[in-house]
């Protein structure tokens, strides 16, 4: 076991509920092993706070292996912390050294209201998916997987887009709080595959309409989203989304 | 989808931004080419042109119906671009009611890509001054001295340029205007093509390089005009 334990100062956003204005609280965490994950450090701090009879820090987490997308922490100005292509749950304390001060904030966007402390309500993403992020198939026997030929390049691009875990880091990083990287991943994933073909136009129109309704900003192509995305979703998906939307919007029947 | 729905959606608004941006880029190509005629008077060309080439080109730009129509188009385009640009900037800012204590800043994007509204405003201020210096004078007043070539009378814009750029302050403001334009286009050029849907990797790489080249060369040539006039390089 490593003996490189460190003492850290945490400045964490505390907010009772969505009505509370909220404020930063400062915490000292002692004896943090560099082998802990960032969330384990929070677990230890919370156990300490509970022992002292204080309110623990609320944060979202589930899989702790980089696949569910719930662990939303904005760490020292960067969603998911200092590492590239990484989620907060997979950030390890070896990224820090003894004596560091770490500032942790929730995702900030009107479309992601704070529920408590570092937890935000991301059901706006769910509603965007419900508005078209699926394919409609009649039930019956499953079709043989090889019955639909898919070009390898397109399958790869669709797969890369499908890697989006809906964490919302792209929104958190964007100066416009735009959800375009998320939406472009969802739209590209289905637009590139033959199964997505039949609903291709209505899907993109409905999903963009829902995104606008939720109060996300529009895209300025700054690239901040791509820079922080834990799944390295490419900015070129946004261009594809623009093309899909413009084509669908200009040639729609009505 | 109705037209109104398309053009009020977030992507529809950006589509207008991108199209008008590309249109303005095309205009800049024409504008810089015409004005570059003043460099016919550089001593290396030994032409003793006295601004004739430039005056004739500028006169042509004001004399045909087709170009008059394009002029209206240009004003509508600029207006759409400005109104839509501000509308988007305001709406985008409003999408985050509570900001961060620590910002991502340059770790995620270039400063000028986040400052399109500010850079656009500087261009707009410059544009007002610039139109006041030349366009309004030529279109609405008889303050410009005439010059006659082959029996055709026209404004002596060349002399007007020399007069305007006699002031070092004006030259400085024009240079700042060109720098704002350079940064606006360093992001805007490639962004506009992404906005209208160009997603092929090879085109995006090409357009990004082309955009950087354009945003350096065109504002530089523009900036050299007041400098050349001020220091009498073209006379
Ligand atoms: C000759 C003058 C101008 C040219 C060539 C130009 C060009 C462009 C281009 C190509 C874009 C990128 C569009 C996109 O991302 O889709 C853009 C964006 C923008 N322009 Fe201009 N522009 C000019 C003047 C102005 C002026 C006067 C303003 C004024 C207020 C302005 C404000 C903006 C803003 C705010 C954006 C960013 C919009 C966004 O991405 O959300 N521009 N411009
Ligand atoms: S695009 Fe990336 S940053 Fe955005 S929600 Fe998906 S995985 Fe998260
Ligand atoms: S907890 Fe699931 S991705 Fe981090």
Q: What would CATH call the homologous superfamily of the largest domain in chain A? A: Alpha-helical ferredoxin
| Ends apart, CA distance between termini of chain B | 58 Å
Shape label of chain B: globular
Oligomer: heterodimer
Strand order of the largest sheet of chain A: 2-1-5-3-4
- CA radius of gyration of chain B: 20 Å
Query: What is the helix tally of chain B?
Result: 8
Helix and strand composition category of chain A:
alpha+beta
CATH fold label of the largest domain in chain A: Fumarate Reductase Iron-sulfur Protein, Chain B, domain 2
Give the fraction of residues assigned to helices of chain B: over 70%
CATH fold group of chain B: 3 helical TM bundles of succinate and fumarate reductases
InterPro entries (chain A): 2Fe-2S_ferredoxin-like_sf (IPR036010), 2Fe-2S_ferredoxin-type (IPR001041), 2Fe2S_fd_BS (IPR006058), 4Fe4S_Fe-S-bd (IPR017896), Beta-grasp_dom_sf (IPR012675), Helical_ferredxn (IPR009051), SDH/FRD_Iron-Sulfur (IPR050573), Succ_DH/fum_Rdtase_N (IPR025192)
Protein name (chain A): Succinate dehydrogenase iron-sulfur subunit
Pfam families (chain A): Fer2_3 (PF13085), Fer4_8 (PF13183)
Cofactor (chain A): [3Fe-4S] cluster; [2Fe-2S] cluster
Provide structural commentary.
The complex is a heterodimer of chains A (254) and B (235). Chain A is built from 8 helices and 7 strands, in the order ββαβββββααααααα. With 254 residues, chain A is α+β, with helices and mostly antiparallel strands. Chain A folds into 2 domains: 5-105, Beta-grasp domain (Ubiquitin-like (UB roll), Roll), CATH 3.10.20.30; 122-140 and 147-252, Fumarate Reductase Iron-sulfur Protein, Chain B, domain 2. Chain A has a 5-stranded mixed β-sheet with strand order 2-1-5-3-4. Chain A has a two-stranded antiparallel ribbon with strand order 6-7. In chain A, α2 (123-130) runs antiparallel to α6, α5 crosses α8 and α6 crosses α8. The N and C termini of chain A lie far apart (67 Å). Chain B is mainly α and 235 residues long. Chain B has a single domain (3-94, 109-230), classed as Up-down Bundle (3 helical TM bundles of succinate and fumarate reductases). Chain B contains 8 helices and 2 strands. In chain B, β1 (146-149) and β2 (152-155) form a beta hairpin. Chain B is globular, with a radius of gyration of 20 Å. The N and C termini of chain B lie far apart (58 Å). The model of chain B has no long low-confidence stretch (mean pLDDT 93). The complex binds protoporphyrin IX containing FE, iron/sulfur cluster and FE2/S2 (inorganic) cluster. FE2/S2 (inorganic) cluster binds at residues 61-64, 66-71, 87-89 of chain A. Chain A: Its cofactor is [3Fe-4S] cluster; [2Fe-2S] cluster. Chain A: GO terms for molecular function: 2 iron, 2 sulfur cluster binding; electron transfer activity. Chain A: This is Succinate dehydrogenase iron-sulfur subunit. Chain A: Residues 155-185 form the 4Fe-4S ferredoxin-type domain.
């Amino acid at each position: 076991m490593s003996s490189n334990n460190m003492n850290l100062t945490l400045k964490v956003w505390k907010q009772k509920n969505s009505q509370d204005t909220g404020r930063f609280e400062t915490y000292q965490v002692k004896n943090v092993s560099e082998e802990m994950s960032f969330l384990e450090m929070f677990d230890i701090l919370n156990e300490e706070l509970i022992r002292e009879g204080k309110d623990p820090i609320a944060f979202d987490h589930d899989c702790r292996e980089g696949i569910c997308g719930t662990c939303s922490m904005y760490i020292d100005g960067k969603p998911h912390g200092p590492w590239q292509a990484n989620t907060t749950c997979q950030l390890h304390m070896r990224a820090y050294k003894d004596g560091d001060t770490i500032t942790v904030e929730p995702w900030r966007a009107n479309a992601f209201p704070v529920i408590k402390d570092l937890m935000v309500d991301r059901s706006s993403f769910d509603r965007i998916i419900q508005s078209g992020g699926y394919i409609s198939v009649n039930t019956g026997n499953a079709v043989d997987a090889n019955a639909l030929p898919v070009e390898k390049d397109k399958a790869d691009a669709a797969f890369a887009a499908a890697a989006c875990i809906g964490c919302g880091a792209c929104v958190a990083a964007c100066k416009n709080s735009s959800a375009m990287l998320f939406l472009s991943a969802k739209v590209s994933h289905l637009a590139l595959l033959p199964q997505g073909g039949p609903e291709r136009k209505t899907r993109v129109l409905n999903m963009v309409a829902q995104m606008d309704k939720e109060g996300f900003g529009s895209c300025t192509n700054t690239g901040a989203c791509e820079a922080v995305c834990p799944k390295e979703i490419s900015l070129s998906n946004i261009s594809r989304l623009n093309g899909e939307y413009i084509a669908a919007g200009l040639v729609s029947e009505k | 989808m109705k037209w109104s729905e398309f053009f009020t959606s977030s992507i529809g608004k950006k589509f207008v931004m991108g199209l008008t941006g590309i249109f303005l880029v095309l205009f800049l190509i024409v504008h810089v080419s015409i004005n570059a005629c003043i460099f016919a008077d550089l001593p290396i060309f030994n032409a003793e042109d006295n601004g004739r080439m430039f005056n004739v080109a500028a006169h042509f730009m004001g004399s045909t119906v087709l170009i008059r129509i394009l002029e209206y188009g240009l004003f509508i385009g600029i207006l759409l671009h400005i109104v839509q640009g501000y509308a988007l900037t305001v709406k985008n800012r409003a999408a985050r009611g509570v900001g961060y204590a620590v910002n991502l800043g340059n770790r995620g994007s270039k400063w000028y890509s986040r400052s399109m509204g500010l850079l656009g405003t500087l261009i707009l201020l410059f544009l007002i001054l610039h139109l006041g210096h030349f366009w309004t004078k030529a279109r609405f007043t008889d303050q410009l001295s005439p010059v006659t070539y082959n029996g055709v009378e026209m404004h002596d814009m060349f002399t007007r340029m020399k007069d305007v750029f006699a002031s070092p302050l004006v030259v400085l403001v024009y240079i700042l205007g060109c720098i704002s334009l350079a940064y606006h286009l360093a992001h805007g050029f490639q962004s506009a093509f992404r906005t209208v849907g160009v997603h092929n990797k090879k085109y995006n790489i090409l357009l990004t390089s082309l955009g950087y080249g354009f945003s350096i060369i065109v504002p530089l040539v523009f900036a050299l005009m007041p400098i050349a006039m001020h220091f009498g390089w073209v006379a």
